[in-house]
Design brief:
Elements: H1 6-19, H2 22-37, H3 54-76
Helix pairs in contact: 1-2, 2-3
């Protein structure tokens, strides 16, 4: 069994978005969304010296995943 590296997945999602790799964007965004909605750990999405409420970071990650999924769907159709 492999463990889900949320920080690595977040970085890969950003890279896939940058490179417009829409299938990878769709896969990573869906996996991250499932992980976060299931109460999994959150990636660090801001500078290390910035501490924000967990609810805020969770909301940002979920919003970004939804937006990434919409972009992927639009570009794959």
């Amino acid at each position: 069994m492999t463990t889900f590296d949320v920080q690595e997945a977040w970085g890969e999602l950003l890279a896939a978005l940058h490179n417009r790799e829409w299938r990878m964007v769709k896969e990573l965004a869906a996996a991250l969304r499932t992980h976060v909605k299931g109460g999994g750990t959150l990636p660090r999405i801001f500078a290390e010296d910035v501490e924000l409420p967990e609810e805020f970071v969770r909301g940002c990650v979920l919003f970004d995943c939804e937006l990434a999924l919409q972009l992927a769907e639009a570009n794959l159709s």
